[in-house]
Structures are given as structure tokens and as C-alpha cells.
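In this section we walk through a basic example: taking a raw amino acid sequence and producing a predicted 3D structure, encoded as C-alpha cells. The instruction is simple. Fold the sequence below.
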Amino acid sequence: MLVWLCSLAGVIVAGALFPVVGAVGLVSVRADESVDRVSARLAEAPPPLVTTVTDSTGGQIATLYAQYRLPLAVSDVSDAMRWALVSVEDKRFYQHRGVDLKGILRAAVSTGSGGATQGASTLTQQYVKNYLINVVYRNDKAGQAKAREASIARKLKEARVAVQIETKMSKEQILAAYLNVVEFPRQVYGVAAAARAFFDTDPKNLSVAQAALLAGLVNNPSVFDPWNHPRKATERRNLVLDRMVENRKLGAADAARIKTEPLGVVPGGPVKPAANCIGAGRENGFFCQYVEDYLLTKAGMNKDDLYTGGYTVRTTMDQRANYLAKAAAEQQVKKTQKNVANTLSLVKPGKDRHEVVALAANRDYGNDAPAGQTVYALPSGIWNTGGAGSSYKIFTAAAALRQGVAGIYSTIDTPGFYTSPVFGSNNPRCAKIGRGTYAYCLGNAGDHYPGSMTLQTALATSPNTGFVILEEKTGMGPVVEMAGKLGMRETMAANLAGRAPDPAAKNPRVSMPQSRFFGPKDGSPGEGSFTLGVSPLSGLELANVAATILSGGRWCPPTPIGRISNRDGAPRQLREQACEQVLEPGLANTLAVGMSKDDQAGGTSAAAAAASGWTRPMIGKTGTTQNNASATFVGGTPQLAGAAMVFRPQGGNGGLCDGGPGNVYACDKGTMFGGKTPARTFYTAMNAILDGQPSLALPPADPRYEHAR
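The resulting C-alpha cell sequence is shown next.
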């Protein structure tokens, strides 16, 4: 150690004989380049800060971070904190220029005479070391080890960078920068975060006792952890108080008094906000999760940038609407109900943006499964593997209007049972056509349907046979394509398990995206079951379908982002998909009129609408899958669109039974329909959210799409 310190002192003294210009020239040109690279890394790598996620009004809902660090300015540092740190770590801080030659020689003499080994690093040097460890190399174990190694080369480089820093920053700036980057116990970084986490105060309000404790902790955070090692922490704090007395920054009597005081840290460990969307709580967590997913998968950000950039992400979430949506979902299905999820996704229609307003579920967001919590993205992800049921008839109707096969007032055939000569199937229950061939066959949900009706009436009453016949006439290509156009884009890109297709799989249900599986291929006309909604889907995308229709056929990505600004307050540009005119406005408006009778007498959601006192003009479509295992309701008004879904998130055989609000459960033989739990959830929430807003009329139908062409 003595040889090491003397060598370092000799080199530093030699270097001090040269003028300080930029990087001090000390060993070789190659060394200078190394120092310059280190200096550049310090300048280019800002310290990680906490990203704040807010609702649409700016109210904080969550924090995202890799290191819990709050920004610190020079003016934020209290005198007590300043002098506590200087006194114990570098009492000549205001006299030297980055390297303390007297300190180095004193350490060498003390060590050589058999005294305790003394450190010789100045606060500026410590700042360099901490910055490299906690910022530049925070994800690089090898780099951190190199920044810690006990070698003359490392110490020389650190000292040279420190000298360079002192030519560019004031002492107060250096001190504040050090206090902003240094690590405290329990992975708390910077004194601003430590003041908040340890004492629930601001750094400018730290008392002498508090400042002395924090100043002592930086020497060895784990050894002096005040919760795990209170005795050692107290001894270290008292040592800092003694150093402050020696440095004439504290009176001896005051130091003696403070030594008798308890540490005063908050009980149970530091108070830190959750580092991810768990902190958004049971109601807002699903929305926060969609914000993160959107930024990382669609908007061009990476997770490290999001979690360290110190951004302020103002979302489009309406706190009141999200609360009411959650309350409506939970009113219908208990949060702890085994294998039953009830979700509601709400999107605001618009020509330029489709802002997501609420994402809610009966389940709470969190990791405590027995308490009804989950971190699955139930309202936004592709978690309803049971399907949407007849809500997908919207796509068949839209494609038929576009192809001129039918208009909303055209009469379509709706027989009680139908055997399709187009869509092949190996179903022995169907009538036999030719040797060994069975046609796709199906019936309606009940025998109360007439043999024909208008397309508008069919959308409200939902006969299965009529829409399969429309698929035959329209072609599966346009029908499947329409689903993607109107909004089911991630859904249609997923396979029949709701995941990314695996091209290597032999089973086409796994290897193909839904767009290919259901569409025409290899001489096949496609799968006629598509209009019955038999495949996994995203509830948020289904809500955006309604928003697209109510926006005159203008599709926009369902965005949760109002604006995002960086740590300096400047806007952060995001990569977002452009809106597209996917339907001619007249067609979209006519489709809306075609979907406007579901809440009225005879409509599949009429009972739920009447029970809720619903009176607004709207579009709507229910859906129920085979065995009543899942059900949906999609609809909206000119102000707000949405989709409610009830499904079995863990899958399994059987259905869902609806015994009324609060009495929905998984069962063997289901009684669930889209006009029950989903429709009740939708109407309950929408009535409350739209309360006080005007009742707006739907746009008129375009005569070109009222009848077949």
C-alpha cells in the first residue's frame, strides 16, 4: 500500500508541474486518449432517473425505474448535508483542484508508519468512480469491477479525469453531482431519493443528524445499513459528527447532544415507490401496463430508456372513467371468482387519434392471485382465447356492404338450419353431400327466428345462418380482411392460441396467423366459422373497431399516450402508426345505422339496456361462443366506444353461468350470453361515464349502402 500511494503521489506531483489544459498530459498520448474516452462517457451517460406515469390531468399513477434516484440541483443541497459530507470524505474539498496532494502524502505517511490505512480520494475522484459504477457501467459487471480495481493505472485515470472535471464545473456543481449519483443502502441512489426514502423529507430540509447519517452511509452502504446494522450505522453517524466538529462546522455541545438521538429512519426499511406498474394499484395497473407495452412494442422506445430516462408520460387515461369501468366490471363478476375474467376497454373515437380512456377488469392488478390479482393484460392483450362470438358478424356485414352484396335494409335469408355447400367440414351431424364429404352446417340460437329479415334486424337479433350465407356470397377474403382493417390487427396476426405463429409447427392452428387460417388458401374457400367469433382476441382492439366505425371509417391505433417529455421538459418524439381511412365514410355511417338497434325491443342487449335506463343513440353488437364459454358486447356512442368481455382466462372445458350481477361463475353447461354480463357491464359504466354529456345522434345512412348494388 505504501509503495502504491507513493507512486501515485509521485506521478500526480509530476503532473501538477504541467499547466492544466483539457485533459492533463501525464503519461502518454495513449493514456490521454483513454482519459478523454472516460470523460466522454461521463458526459454522454446521464444518471438514471425515475420515469413518472400520469393520468390525462397530470396526476401521478405510477413510477418506472431501474435505480431509485430523484433529480437534484445545487440549490437543493442543505448546508448540513454539504458540510457533513465534506467533513468526513474530503475536508480540503474547497482547496484542491480535483486531486489532494496533501491527502495522498498524509495517507502514505500514516500507512507507512503503521497507522490505519487512509483513503486519498477526493470527492471529485469519488464522483468519477461512482459515476462509472452506478451510471456508465451499471449493466456491465466487468466494467464495474474495472472501476473498482485497486491499481495505480485505475487511480491515475480517475485522478486525471477529476482534474479535468474541476476545470469545467464549479465546486458546488461537483458536490451536487456527487450527491446525485452516489449509492445508499437498499439500492437508493442520490441524496434526494435517500432523504425521501430514509426520512420522508426533502434534501434541503435534512437536519444535521440526518445529514450525518447519510454522509456516513456512502462509505459502505451495506455495512452501515441503518435497518440491518443500527449499531454500526450509529457509530458511523457519530464519527461524521466528530469530523464536522473538527472541521468547525458544528459545535461540540451540539454534536454531543445529537449523538444521543436515535437514527430516526422510517421504520421497516426505506420507503420507495414500486419500480413498475404494480405501483399503479389495482385499478390503474392494467392501463399502466398497456402504456409500457405500447411504448416498447409500438412507439420505438426500449425498456432501459423508459426505465432510466426520467420521462414524464402523460397518458390518455381518464381517472374517473377508469374507476367507473372497474366498478362496473367488478359489480358483475367478483374479483376472486375462479377462472372468470370480466373486462371493459374504452376508446374515444376521432379522425386524428383514438385515445384509450379506460382499461378495467373485475380482477385487481397485482401479484396476489388468491386475492384476485393478476398481471396478465386482460383488457388489452389477446387473453380471451374463447372468442368473441357473434360480435364478429360486424366484419361480415361491413364486407357485404362494401362488396355490394347487401345493404342494411336488404332482406337476407336466415333459415333455422343451414348446410353450406361452400365451406367443407367433417361434421357427421351435417347432411351428406356426395361420397364421404360433409358440408359445414349450423343452426341459430333458438327457433324463434323468421326465415328472412333485413341485415339491420339481423345485426340486432344475430341469426347465425344469415351471416354464413353472407360469407358465401361475399367471399372469405374480404370478410377476414375487413377484421384487420377495422381494428383487429394484432389479433389477426396471432395464431389460434393467441400467440405469435410458429412456422415450424405442423398444426396450422399454431403455425398460421388467424388472417391466413380463416382466409382462402390452397384452393380452400376459407373457414366459415370466422363470423361466429371462434378465435382469441384483444378486447381493446374490439373496442377500437367500434371507434373506427364511429369515426367515419377512420382507423387510428388505440393510443394511451397524451404526451411524453424528457428530464429537461422537452417533448419526446414517438413512432406511432398513422391513421388510415379504411372505410368510405358513407359506408361506415351506414354500418353504424345498421348496428343501432341492438339496445331496442327485440335486440340482444335490449333487456340490459332497459334495466340500466339507457336512452342514448348507439351502435352495439353482442356475441356468445360455443358452450357459452365466453361472451362480448361491443358498442359505443359518438363520444365513447368500448368492448366488454367475459371469459375463462385459464381456459378449460365448460362454460360460464350467469346468475345475475355478482353471481357469475364457471360451470359445465353455460347460460352466458353477450346480452347478459358483458352488456350489463357496458351499459352500467357508460351511463355513469357519460352522465352530464349531451346525447348525440348517429350520422345518417348513405343511400348507396342501404340496399344491395
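Looking at the output, two observations stand out. The first helix runs from residue 2 to 16. The chain is about 40% helix and 15% strand. In the next section we compare this with other chains.
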